[in-house]
Amino acid sequence: MQYEAEFLKIAVVDDEPLWQQKTVDVIENKYGLDAPHIDRYSSGRELLDRNTYYDILFMDIEMEGLDGFETAKRYQKQYEYAKIAMLTSHTELSRRGYVVNAFRYIDKACMEAEITEALSAVRKAKEKERCIEVNIVGLGTMPILIKDIIYVNMNRRNILIHTRKGDFISSCTMHEMEDLVKGCGFYRSHRSYLINLDETINYEGMNIIMSDGTKAYLSKDKQSEFKEKLLARKFEMANG
């Protein structure tokens, strides 16, 4: 949970203090002791004046002055990748939401389950978009999308990063790579291999079949643990 909480920037926009606090409480209860800092705004204007990007905003539709729809429309002009979950006690208002392409519509009467689901969905989306900066031999430091990495292989003194867009040789160590992709579904299947579980298709004995048909090694003493990790990852991605 700690990685997920640190990963997301969250804001609540509601002009009713009671509902604002209830929304914050639901988010904090999801993460427990690892709950992130949550910025609060009492109006759409206050949010827009702050000029701050958030991964997800929980925004009340029926605010005085700038309502939620108008606030969302203006916010998205500046931050098009932000996800906005609209909160309302009147679900019929959600029909206007096509104007702002809202990420979710949340009924305040059953907000706990719906907010929890929205946070998990955003985390999945952000995880796929996350980049790491790696020192590539001959090219210097460059960003690589984590979702593009199929596996990392120790290659003599350097490591080979095998991605959807080609292979890169890096001077990073395997331990450094493990830290960079921590919490993103990677597993050290062998002392020489760090694999992306989301890119794992099958396994045969000591060979792991990856999404592009290449193979990674699996240590004999890690076969049982690998199966458990793979099943757990598939379940996590299917259920949030």
Low-confidence stretches: 1-5
Overall mean pLDDT score?
Answer: 88
What characterizes the major β-sheet?
5 strands, parallel
Structural class: alpha/beta
Portion of residues in helices? 25-40%
Count of folded domains = 2
Shape label: elongated
Gyration radius from CA atoms, angstroms: 21 Å
The first-level CATH class of the largest domain is given as Alpha Beta
**The CATH topology of the largest domain is what?**
Rossmann fold
N-to-C SSE series?
HEHEHEHEEHEEEEEHEEEEEH
Distance between the termini: 12 Å
Number of strands: 15
Could you tell me the strand content as a percent range? 25-35%
Order of strands, widest sheet: 2-1-3-4-5
Lay out the secondary structure.
Blueprint: H1 2-7, E1 10-13, H2 17-31, E2 38-41, H3 44-50, E3 56-60, H4 68-78, E4 83-88, E5 104-107, H5 111-129, E6 131-136, E7 140-145, E8 149-155, E9 158-163, E10 166-170, H6 174-180, E11 186-190, E12 193-196, E13 200-204, E14 207-210, E15 215-217, H7 223-239
Parallel strand pairs: 1-2, 1-3, 3-4, 4-5
Antiparallel strand pairs: 6-7, 8-9, 8-12, 9-10, 11-12, 13-14, 14-15
